[in-house]
Design a protein that fits this description.
Blueprint (H helix, E strand, L loop, with lengths): L1 H18 L16 E2 L2 E7 L7 H16 L3 E7 L15 H9 L10 E4 L4 E4 L4 H15 L3 E2 L1 E10 L3 E10 L5 E12 L9 E7 L3 E4 L4 E5 L3 E2 L6 E8 L5 E8 L1
Helix pairs in contact: 2-4
Length: 255
Amino acid sequence: MCKYIFNLLISIFLWMMCKDIPRDNLLDPKNPNSSQSSTVLLEAFVNTNNPYSYNQWALQALDSIKVIYGNKILIAEYHRDTDQYPDPYSKEIFRPLYEKYVENSHLKLKGVPDIFINGTTKRVQGAASVSGVTTRLNLILSELVILNNRFTLEPAEININSTELTASCKIACLGNQSVENLLLRMILIQKVNSQELKRVVSDLEKSITISRLEAGEITLINFNPIRISQRPDKVIFSLTSSDELTVYQNIKVDL
């Protein structure tokens, strides 16, 4: 009996010691000072059926900026029709997002190429040269990629067959403050060719709004099954404000 009580006391003591271990891992959601590095999302609205070089210059600049920043940035290329030039890769589901971005920007003018960075945080519109767009992007990204982030994303499961894709993603709210009104988007990316159509968005899916994440909370978001006609090459999970105007954190999965 005494031996049993002694073992019980030891177990309680060890449990209390473990409970009081300082949480100094900056990726630990329960650590009030935890943070994650930021992955910046560039959403480029382009029309590659336009015979002029503006869009090609922008896409080449994105190639250059990708070499500079690597996995610190993600690129999604939305194709949109213009009055004179319909684009074969445009889809109606992209139009509301573009119009929302433009309407909530300082300069409410539409046009291609048009690159939005972390939602409407920053914008680079038009192209006079490859080097010009690269320089403009570099000035913005050099400041954004070094920022600490209060969220971390982790793909939980992705299943894909010839007709359907299902996916889920975990979100951790880091630090010591709760957050409200979030949205998780899933962007499907197709590599059409290795020249200029490397990151074509083939579909854009939104989960339900996440009403609240408590400090240190980890939640699992499950997307409804998506019908696909062609297998995507990548999936981007993008955590945004509920109005989609601010992009908080992103992660890419190669399929």
